[in-house]
């Protein structure tokens, strides 16, 4: 990159870090097209209502890829607090991306059945993984069909029932929008998006097979009982979203994609996407105000691919 030629090494590193962060945060990665059949959570295309919410300095400069910028392990701004990993989720120790400037190296989770398994754009589930203890949580959903979308793993389902009960007791009844998604479903949906829009475009709103948290059976999108603003940006302004933000950790859930952490999680703010991790981790994550990546010491910027 020519820009760096006249800069001192320290400045290059600093600038490279900023570039990585800004480049990583600019994708509308989890968003599904308006069809609502998507692998992402949103029913509507993302509106850039709050351009300032991406963490780090807003830099107009674009890089081709974080790997090219030369400092793939640059810590993100939120990573100052050293994480205390309580588990070892990764097969091999993470190493700097070495993919010739084309995206990040992908690691396969060694503990796919662990409730603390990390799944994001850099870490995927094994292709053959199927959760063995999926059940139907006894909570209302915004649809009537008996499909896999209702399912969660047993422990997460029990915790969800308690969470829904507590929300109802606080006069804010909730409904499920979408929970489990099989690897096969994700493969089909992703392939259809690639066919329709091309791979590059599809990657902006759909998770690749193996990379969706919904495949763990530990994630669920929720809405208020009316289903209004289900998996849409307007949910953020609801009382239910506020309640979830304040209370989910009590039941072992985290708001997996918090506001302002897009450069770390790889996803924009999704106040409706709950991930079950168990109360030990959820309470600590809520207390520290960190992401799951930061908590596990995996807070390298996530490539938008
Ligand atoms: Zn979701």
Reported by name, the CATH topology is Muramoyl-pentapeptide Carboxypeptidase, domain 2
Strand content: 5-15%
Averaged pLDDT, please? 75
What ligands does this structure carry? Answer: zinc ion
The neighbouring-strand order within the major sheet is 5-6-8-7
Under CATH at level 1, the class stands as Alpha Beta
Q: pLDDT below 50 for ≥5 consecutive residues: which ranges?
A: 1-39, 42-102
Q: What global shape is seen?
A: globular
Report the count of strand segments.
Answer: 8
- Note the gap between the termini: 21 Å
User: How many helical elements?
Assistant: 8
Determine Rg (CA atoms, Å). 19 Å
Helix-strand pattern, N to C? Answer: HEEEEHEHHEHEHEHH
Structural class based on helices, strands and sheet pairing:
alpha+beta
* Approximate helicity band: 25-40%
């Amino acid at each position: 990159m020519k820009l760096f030629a006249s800069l001192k090494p320290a400045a290059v590193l600093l600038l490279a870090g900023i570039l990585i962060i800004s480049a990583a945060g600019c994708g509308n990665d989890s968003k599904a097209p308006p069809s609502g059949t998507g692998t992402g959570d949103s029913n509507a295309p993302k509106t850039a209502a709050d351009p300032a919410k991406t963490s780090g300095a807003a830099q107009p400069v674009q890089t081709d890829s974080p790997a090219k910028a030369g400092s793939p392990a640059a810590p993100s701004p939120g990573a100052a607090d050293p994480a205390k990993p309580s588990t070892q989720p990764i097969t091999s120790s993470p190493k700097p991306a070495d993919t010739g400037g084309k995206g990040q190296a992908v690691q396969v989770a060694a503990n796919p059945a662990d409730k603390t398994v990390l799944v994001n754009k850099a870490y995927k589930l094994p292709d053959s993984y199927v959760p063995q203890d999926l059940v139907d949580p006894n909570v209302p959903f915004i649809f009537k069909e008996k499909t896999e979308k209702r399912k969660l793993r047993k422990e997460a389902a029990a915790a969800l029932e308690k969470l829904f009960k507590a929300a109802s007791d606080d006069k804010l009844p909730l409904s499920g929008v979408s929970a489990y998604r099989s690897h096969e479903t994700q493969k089909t949906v992703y392939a259809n998006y690639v066919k329709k829009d091309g791979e590059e475009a599809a990657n902006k709103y759909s998770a690749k097979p193996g990379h969706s948290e919904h495949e763990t059976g530990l994630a669920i999108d929720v809405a208020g009982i009316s289903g209004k603003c289900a998996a849409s940006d307007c949910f953020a302004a609801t009382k239910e979203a506020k309640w979830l933000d304040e209370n989910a950790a009590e039941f072992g859930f985290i708001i997996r994609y918090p506001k302002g952490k897009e450069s770390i999680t790889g996803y924009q703010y999704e106040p409706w996407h709950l991930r079950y991790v168990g109360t030990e981790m959820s309470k600590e994550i809520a207390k520290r105000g960190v992401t799951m990546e930061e908590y596990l010491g995996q807070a390298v910027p996530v490539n938008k691919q």
